[in-house]
Amino acid sequence: MSRIYDEEWLGQRLRVLRRAPQGWVRAAQELPAARRSLDEIVARAEADLEFRAALIADLENALTQAGFEPGPRALDELRKRLELRGGQA
Amino acid sequence: MSSLDAATDAELVRRCREGDAEAWNALVERFSRYVYAICVKGFRLRDEDAEDVFQDVFTRVYTHLDKLRDDAAVRPWIAQLTRRLCLDSIARGSREQPAPEQDFEETGDDFAEIEEAFAVREAVTTLGEACQEILDRFFAQDQSYRTISAELDLPAGTIASRIARCLRKLREELEGRSEPSGESRE
Fold it and tell me: What is the pTM of this model?
Protein backbone atom coordinates (compact mmCIF):
# COMPACT_ATOMS: atom_id res chain seq x y z
CA MET A 1 0.00 0.00 0.00
CA SER A 2 1.46 3.34 -0.93
CA ARG A 3 0.31 6.36 0.97
CA ILE A 4 1.40 9.95 0.92
CA TYR A 5 2.11 10.97 4.48
CA ASP A 6 1.64 14.68 4.05
CA GLU A 7 1.48 17.06 6.98
CA GLU A 8 -2.29 17.34 6.87
CA TRP A 9 -2.81 13.57 6.97
CA LEU A 10 -0.28 13.17 9.76
CA GLY A 11 -1.78 16.05 11.74
CA GLN A 12 -5.26 14.53 11.49
CA ARG A 13 -4.04 11.17 12.74
CA LEU A 14 -2.03 12.73 15.56
CA ARG A 15 -5.21 14.45 16.75
CA VAL A 16 -7.17 11.20 16.97
CA LEU A 17 -5.43 9.57 19.91
CA ARG A 18 -5.89 12.08 22.67
CA ARG A 19 -4.90 11.40 26.23
CA ALA A 20 -7.56 9.63 28.25
CA PRO A 21 -8.37 11.50 31.47
CA GLN A 22 -5.52 10.99 33.91
CA GLY A 23 -7.81 9.67 36.65
CA TRP A 24 -9.12 6.93 34.38
CA VAL A 25 -5.61 5.86 33.45
CA ARG A 26 -4.46 5.89 37.06
CA ALA A 27 -7.47 3.83 38.16
CA ALA A 28 -6.74 1.26 35.46
CA GLN A 29 -3.08 1.13 36.48
CA GLU A 30 -4.07 0.58 40.09
CA LEU A 31 -6.29 -2.37 39.19
CA PRO A 32 -3.85 -5.10 40.29
CA ALA A 33 -3.45 -3.56 43.74
CA ALA A 34 -7.20 -2.96 44.00
CA ARG A 35 -7.94 -6.57 43.10
CA ARG A 36 -5.43 -7.86 45.62
CA SER A 37 -7.17 -5.76 48.22
CA LEU A 38 -10.57 -7.14 47.21
CA ASP A 39 -9.26 -10.70 47.33
CA GLU A 40 -7.95 -10.04 50.81
CA ILE A 41 -11.30 -8.64 51.98
CA VAL A 42 -13.27 -11.54 50.51
CA ALA A 43 -10.90 -14.11 52.01
CA ARG A 44 -11.17 -12.45 55.38
CA ALA A 45 -14.96 -12.29 55.12
CA GLU A 46 -15.04 -16.01 54.39
CA ALA A 47 -12.81 -16.83 57.33
CA ASP A 48 -14.23 -14.37 59.85
CA LEU A 49 -18.01 -14.48 60.27
CA GLU A 50 -18.00 -11.41 62.50
CA PHE A 51 -16.23 -9.39 59.81
CA ARG A 52 -18.67 -10.70 57.21
CA ALA A 53 -21.61 -9.67 59.38
CA ALA A 54 -20.10 -6.21 59.81
CA LEU A 55 -19.69 -5.93 56.03
CA ILE A 56 -23.29 -6.94 55.46
CA ALA A 57 -24.50 -4.46 58.07
CA ASP A 58 -22.51 -1.49 56.75
CA LEU A 59 -20.04 -2.25 53.99
CA GLU A 60 -18.24 1.06 53.74
CA ASN A 61 -17.95 1.61 57.48
CA ALA A 62 -16.70 -1.93 58.10
CA LEU A 63 -14.07 -1.52 55.41
CA THR A 64 -12.91 1.81 56.77
CA GLN A 65 -12.68 0.30 60.26
CA ALA A 66 -10.57 -2.51 58.84
CA GLY A 67 -8.23 -0.09 57.12
CA PHE A 68 -9.44 -0.50 53.53
CA GLU A 69 -10.40 2.40 51.32
CA PRO A 70 -11.88 0.98 48.12
CA GLY A 71 -13.28 3.34 45.50
CA PRO A 72 -16.84 3.17 44.15
CA ARG A 73 -16.03 0.63 41.44
CA ALA A 74 -14.25 -1.61 43.92
CA LEU A 75 -17.24 -1.33 46.26
CA ASP A 76 -19.58 -2.45 43.48
CA GLU A 77 -17.31 -5.38 42.70
CA LEU A 78 -17.13 -6.27 46.37
CA ARG A 79 -20.91 -6.19 46.71
CA LYS A 80 -21.14 -8.64 43.85
CA ARG A 81 -18.49 -10.92 45.28
CA LEU A 82 -20.05 -10.86 48.73
CA GLU A 83 -23.49 -11.19 47.18
CA LEU A 84 -24.70 -8.05 48.84
CA ARG A 85 -26.53 -6.76 45.80
CA GLY A 86 -29.86 -5.31 46.77
CA GLY A 87 -28.94 -5.62 50.42
CA GLN A 88 -27.91 -2.85 52.73
CA ALA A 89 -25.65 -1.10 50.27
CA MET B 1 9.88 7.58 29.64
CA SER B 2 9.68 4.02 30.81
CA SER B 3 12.23 1.38 29.90
CA LEU B 4 9.26 -0.66 28.70
CA ASP B 5 8.22 1.83 26.02
CA ALA B 6 10.23 -0.12 23.46
CA ALA B 7 8.98 -3.52 24.59
CA THR B 8 6.85 -5.44 22.10
CA ASP B 9 3.20 -6.07 22.90
CA ALA B 10 3.97 -9.75 23.43
CA GLU B 11 6.74 -8.94 25.88
CA LEU B 12 4.49 -6.61 27.84
CA VAL B 13 1.76 -9.22 28.02
CA ARG B 14 4.20 -11.88 29.18
CA ARG B 15 5.55 -9.63 31.91
CA CYS B 16 2.04 -8.60 33.00
CA ARG B 17 1.15 -12.25 33.33
CA GLU B 18 4.15 -12.70 35.61
CA GLY B 19 2.75 -9.98 37.85
CA ASP B 20 5.14 -7.20 36.80
CA ALA B 21 3.45 -3.98 37.96
CA GLU B 22 5.64 -1.78 35.79
CA ALA B 23 4.63 -3.78 32.72
CA TRP B 24 0.95 -3.41 33.59
CA ASN B 25 1.40 0.37 33.91
CA ALA B 26 3.10 0.43 30.52
CA LEU B 27 0.38 -1.70 28.92
CA VAL B 28 -2.35 0.62 30.22
CA GLU B 29 -0.33 3.64 29.05
CA ARG B 30 0.19 2.09 25.60
CA PHE B 31 -3.48 1.31 24.97
CA SER B 32 -5.32 3.95 27.02
CA ARG B 33 -5.56 6.46 24.18
CA TYR B 34 -6.66 3.73 21.79
CA VAL B 35 -9.46 2.49 24.05
CA TYR B 36 -10.49 6.06 24.77
CA ALA B 37 -10.61 6.91 21.06
CA ILE B 38 -12.78 3.89 20.27
CA CYS B 39 -15.20 4.93 23.02
CA VAL B 40 -15.47 8.63 22.30
CA LYS B 41 -14.58 8.93 18.62
CA GLY B 42 -15.69 5.57 17.31
CA PHE B 43 -18.88 5.19 19.35
CA ARG B 44 -19.37 8.75 20.61
CA LEU B 45 -20.12 7.61 24.13
CA ARG B 46 -20.81 10.19 26.78
CA ASP B 47 -17.98 10.65 29.27
CA GLU B 48 -19.62 8.69 32.09
CA ASP B 49 -20.37 5.74 29.79
CA ALA B 50 -16.93 5.95 28.24
CA GLU B 51 -15.34 5.82 31.68
CA ASP B 52 -17.35 2.71 32.59
CA VAL B 53 -16.32 0.99 29.37
CA PHE B 54 -12.70 2.12 29.77
CA GLN B 55 -12.42 0.63 33.26
CA ASP B 56 -14.32 -2.48 32.26
CA VAL B 57 -11.97 -3.07 29.31
CA PHE B 58 -8.85 -2.90 31.46
CA THR B 59 -10.43 -5.00 34.21
CA ARG B 60 -11.21 -7.72 31.68
CA VAL B 61 -7.80 -7.45 30.08
CA TYR B 62 -6.21 -7.88 33.49
CA THR B 63 -8.39 -10.77 34.58
CA HIS B 64 -8.40 -12.64 31.25
CA LEU B 65 -4.81 -12.12 30.19
CA ASP B 66 -4.16 -15.81 30.80
CA LYS B 67 -6.72 -16.72 28.17
CA LEU B 68 -5.08 -14.73 25.38
CA ARG B 69 -3.81 -17.37 22.97
CA ASP B 70 -1.40 -15.14 21.06
CA ASP B 71 0.37 -12.53 23.18
CA ALA B 72 1.15 -10.47 20.09
CA ALA B 73 -2.56 -10.18 19.32
CA VAL B 74 -3.33 -8.11 22.39
CA ARG B 75 -4.26 -4.99 20.39
CA PRO B 76 -6.94 -6.59 18.19
CA TRP B 77 -8.22 -8.34 21.30
CA ILE B 78 -8.47 -5.03 23.17
CA ALA B 79 -10.14 -3.41 20.15
CA GLN B 80 -12.72 -6.18 19.89
CA LEU B 81 -13.38 -6.10 23.63
CA THR B 82 -13.79 -2.32 23.62
CA ARG B 83 -16.16 -2.37 20.67
CA ARG B 84 -18.29 -5.09 22.25
CA LEU B 85 -18.50 -3.23 25.56
CA CYS B 86 -19.33 0.03 23.78
CA LEU B 87 -22.18 -1.68 21.93
CA ASP B 88 -23.40 -3.19 25.23
CA SER B 89 -23.31 0.26 26.80
CA ILE B 90 -25.31 1.77 23.93
CA ALA B 91 -27.84 -1.09 24.08
CA ARG B 92 -28.18 -0.64 27.85
CA GLY B 93 -28.63 3.10 27.41
CA SER B 94 -31.34 2.74 24.82
CA ARG B 95 -33.18 0.20 27.01
CA GLU B 96 -33.06 2.55 29.99
CA GLN B 97 -33.89 5.66 28.01
CA PRO B 98 -35.29 4.84 24.59
CA ALA B 99 -34.37 7.57 22.16
CA PRO B 100 -36.82 8.59 19.46
CA GLU B 101 -34.09 8.04 16.92
CA GLN B 102 -30.75 6.38 17.27
CA ASP B 103 -28.05 9.01 16.84
CA PHE B 104 -25.22 6.53 16.59
CA GLU B 105 -24.33 4.93 13.34
CA GLU B 106 -21.25 2.74 13.19
CA THR B 107 -19.19 3.62 10.16
CA GLY B 108 -15.90 2.13 9.15
CA ASP B 109 -14.23 5.50 8.59
CA ASP B 110 -13.71 6.45 12.22
CA PHE B 111 -12.38 3.01 13.11
CA ALA B 112 -10.03 2.97 10.14
CA GLU B 113 -8.77 6.38 11.22
CA ILE B 114 -8.20 5.14 14.78
CA GLU B 115 -6.17 2.20 13.46
CA GLU B 116 -4.10 4.53 11.28
CA ALA B 117 -3.62 6.87 14.22
CA PHE B 118 -2.32 3.99 16.33
CA ALA B 119 0.23 3.11 13.65
CA VAL B 120 1.29 6.76 13.46
CA ARG B 121 1.60 6.91 17.22
CA GLU B 122 3.80 3.81 17.23
CA ALA B 123 6.03 5.54 14.71
CA VAL B 124 6.12 8.67 16.88
CA THR B 125 7.55 6.64 19.76
CA THR B 126 10.68 6.01 17.68
CA LEU B 127 11.38 9.73 17.16
CA GLY B 128 12.83 10.59 20.52
CA GLU B 129 11.34 12.34 23.49
CA ALA B 130 11.58 15.93 22.21
CA CYS B 131 9.53 15.18 19.08
CA GLN B 132 7.04 13.04 20.97
CA GLU B 133 6.46 15.85 23.42
CA ILE B 134 6.07 18.67 20.95
CA LEU B 135 3.84 16.70 18.53
CA ASP B 136 1.63 15.53 21.34
CA ARG B 137 1.28 19.00 22.83
CA PHE B 138 0.47 20.62 19.49
CA PHE B 139 -1.79 18.02 17.91
CA ALA B 140 -3.30 15.92 20.70
CA GLN B 141 -3.48 18.60 23.39
CA ASP B 142 -4.23 21.56 21.09
CA GLN B 143 -1.61 23.71 22.79
CA SER B 144 -0.64 26.99 21.12
CA TYR B 145 2.92 27.84 20.08
CA ARG B 146 3.00 30.28 22.98
CA THR B 147 2.00 27.65 25.56
CA ILE B 148 4.44 25.10 24.18
CA SER B 149 7.18 27.69 24.18
CA ALA B 150 6.48 28.66 27.79
CA GLU B 151 6.10 25.12 29.10
CA LEU B 152 9.10 23.66 27.31
CA ASP B 153 11.18 26.79 27.73
CA LEU B 154 11.85 27.08 24.00
CA PRO B 155 12.01 30.25 21.89
CA ALA B 156 8.49 30.88 20.48
CA GLY B 157 9.84 31.48 17.01
CA THR B 158 11.27 27.98 16.78
CA ILE B 159 8.14 25.97 17.61
CA ALA B 160 6.71 25.85 14.09
CA SER B 161 10.02 24.77 12.59
CA ARG B 162 10.51 22.12 15.28
CA ILE B 163 7.06 20.71 14.58
CA ALA B 164 7.77 20.69 10.85
CA ARG B 165 11.09 18.94 11.46
CA CYS B 166 9.43 16.30 13.66
CA LEU B 167 6.70 15.74 11.07
CA ARG B 168 9.38 15.24 8.44
CA LYS B 169 11.11 12.65 10.62
CA LEU B 170 7.76 10.99 11.26
CA ARG B 171 7.03 10.81 7.55
CA GLU B 172 10.44 9.26 6.89
CA GLU B 173 9.83 6.73 9.64
CA LEU B 174 6.44 5.75 8.22
CA GLU B 175 7.74 5.58 4.68
CA GLY B 176 10.54 3.33 5.95
CA ARG B 177 7.98 0.87 7.21
CA SER B 178 7.41 -0.55 3.77
CA GLU B 179 5.18 -3.38 4.90
CA PRO B 180 3.55 -4.40 8.16
CA SER B 181 6.11 -6.52 9.93
CA GLY B 182 5.80 -5.63 13.61
CA GLU B 183 4.10 -8.27 15.70
CA SER B 184 1.74 -5.68 17.15
CA ARG B 185 0.54 -4.60 13.74
CA GLU B 186 -2.21 -6.41 11.93
Answer: 0.82
